[in-house]
Amino acid sequence: MLEGVMHSLARLGRNVINGIWRAGSMARFFGLVLASSGTSFQRFRLVMREVYFSGVLSLIIIIVSGLFVGMVLGLQGYQTLQKYGATESIGVLVALSLVRELGPVVAALLFASRAGSAITAEIGLMKTTEQLTAMDMMAVSPMSRVIAPRFWGGIISMPILAWLFSAMGVFGGYLVGVVIIGVDNGAFWSQMQAAVDLRYDVLNGTVKAFVFGVAVTVIATFEGYDAPPTAEGVSGATTRTVVTSALMILALDLVLTAFMLRSAD
Amino acid sequence: MERTTIDLWFGAFVTAGFVALLVLALKVGNLGAERATETYRVEARFDNIGGLKVRGPVRSAGVLVGRVQEIHFDNDRFQAKVMLALDKRYSFPKDTTASILTSGLLGETYIGLEAGGEDKKLAAGDRIAITQSAVVLEKLIGQFLFSKAQEEPPRKQEEPKKAEDPRKPEAAKK
Questions:
Q1: Could you tell me if A81 and A93 are in contact, meaning their C-beta atoms sit under 8 angstroms apart?
Q2: Contact between A197 and B7 using a beta-carbon 8 Å cutoff
Q3: A99 vs B57: CB contact, 8 Å cut-off?
Q4: Which of A55, A242, B120, B131 is most open to solvent, judged by the fewest CB atoms within 10 Å of its CB?
Q5: Interface test with B, best of A97, A163, A200 (most B CBs within 10 A)
Q6: Full residue range of the structural domain in which residue A192 is found
Q7: Residue A2 belongs to some domain of the structure
């Protein structure tokens, strides 16, 4: 029995030390990516290709989910607001919750599972098949040729996807609130316009999306680059990308929201 | 420079993103429409401003005519000093009344302006002399209870009780 306890303690310790180790190497990796991203801007075509793969191909899922989230917000909000006779505020509810929270957060979660996992799997497979080593042998830095363009592509895509998500969500809320339920069109938009502030709501949402973009792409590229060069290793790295990104997005969201709400007062 | 399909997609993607941002800014956030108009500043002092906030609306006859610009506490007179930015398109008489109102029971607090009868108009930097403070619900309930207690002497209620009380033990005995 004592042996079992010692064993689990040892495993816990190993996991903690391993986690700290990985956090350290991820930070060093982030610095390395920033240092070697000069090529990405000299040959911007590389970044555009990555924007196409991580951004443009995510458009369908972002637009459709944004529409559905907005419609659900409209329906749920109507149910509650009806009790207080304030159904015209449905526009405020939909717009504020989308622009401040749901737009950046849900778009980032979808981005992590749609594009982040693909980045990890691609880089992991390149490593497994020794393409990265081959590049190194040809004096082409895999950091600046493979990793950095994916990093910048993700950073460019993420705010754009969040804006599209929010805009589609507001449209979904409009469809349910005004077209189906029949809330007054003028009150819907005017109350929304009175409540949504460009500086505190739209800009802060964009800052959130940008931070999430950095977090997701750093995690995705690092996991791919760090993956054990086996089939199992790549699959494990892909799973870790999605799990770690989701946790990071939600944790960062709490921190950013705490900062932003304080500065708004 | 050679054109590729990726360029087209990249352009379309970024354009769609900025269109979405423009929609958020103009349609959802209402950028520009209010800030473009010129304003003049008027001062008003209140005993109690209730839940009034900076950037809160100033309405006259229900129409938005300006915004609350600053709120300070005047330590000499122990009153709230509110600076209003009124739209230059509208002018009000000097004896206009400003009162703190609430739209609906749970709605936002705003300043209502009611025009007076004087010929002279309010100019920039003027002070609105006649003001009405926010209604504090607790005070109102307190006053109501106090006046109710004064109206009805408590004896009227006690007398029928005394008449009833002796019967009950009798009914129980039977």
A1: yes
A2: no
A3: no
A4: B120
A5: A163
A6: 36-264
A7: no
